[in-house]
Amino acid sequence: MNTEIIMYGADWCGDCIRSKGILEERNINYTMRDITDPKKGKEYSDIVMNINDGKRIIPTFVIGDNHYANPRPSDLNTILDNLPSNEDENITKCSNGNILENGDTVLLTRDLDVKGSQLNLKQGMALEKIKLTGDPAYIDVRVGKSTLAIKTEFVKKKS
């Protein structure tokens, strides 16, 4: 998840415990700021009161630019469901937005000169049995005896 989640609450608060359970069950990273903390509790409590028009309501969530005061579990789940996800950042896609997988065949969308070689790959050339690299911007492909890393923006998945 790209959006930072800050939860203001207290260890003794049942609603806070329930909300923490939802976050942890869903493996969502968050920052817990305890309003009873001896060092920073007053600062955290003041933030909560400022957000909630002078009321100390916990848990209070700050998620991106939005604030939520003691959301019901169903509301918290809805909020979390609607957060932008960075899961797509780890999915390798071709220039047309189609998901690529190991073993797929792709077509080049433009001519490519291979650095350090006289090899020239032509637009429309089929590259078979690609391998994902872990970096969604690149795929590995064998051309002859060479393995090349090619940017996914220069390929489209063959239908």
Please describe what this structure looks like:
Strand 1 (5-9), helix 1 and strand 2 (31-34) form a beta-alpha-beta unit. By secondary structure, this protein is of the alpha+beta class. The protein has helices at residues 14-25, 41-51, 73-81, and strands at 5-9, 31-34, 60-63, 66-69, 106-108, 112-113, 120-121, 126-127, 131-132, 138-143, 146-151, 155-157. It folds into two domains: 5-85, Glutaredoxin (3-Layer(aba) Sandwich); 92-157, SH3 Domains (SH3 type barrels), CATH 2.30.30. 20% of the residues lie in helices and 27% in strands. The strands form four sheets. It has a four-stranded mixed sheet, with helices on one face. A three-stranded antiparallel sheet has the order 8-5-12, with no helix packed on it.
How would you describe this structure in keywords?
12 strands, 20% helix, rod-shaped, Glutaredoxin, alpha+beta, 159 residues, three-stranded antiparallel sheet, 27% strand, SH3 type barrels
